[in-house]
Request: fold
Amino acid sequence: MISIAPYSLERLETATLKLTEPKPKLKADHAQGIIYLDDNTQLRGILAIAWDYKLGNRSALEWILDQYKEKKPKDGTIAAKFNTYRFADYKTQVIDLLQRVCTVSVETMHIIRQMP
Reply:
């Protein structure tokens, strides 16, 4: 099985005095090269070229951020009984996935730009 090496991104954790769980954000700042995962966690050092690798109309990194957002069902019964997804439960795996997709994005764009 082939494994992609995780891209070296800086993980910045900010401490808060809140007793509640940090609220998921999953937003990207392309200009700064930052992904805001939640109120306390940022991933920094994302190269601008990583955002250029598109899958349809969005970058691969944006697809991941969108798919891991917490979504609330409109039906209250469904939300109460079946909506058990919480981003905090998958935060470590999402960070690892983002690092690996960043590697694929950067390497793919380098290959594409070398083509005639």
User: Anything to note?
Assistant: The chain has a mean pLDDT of 92.
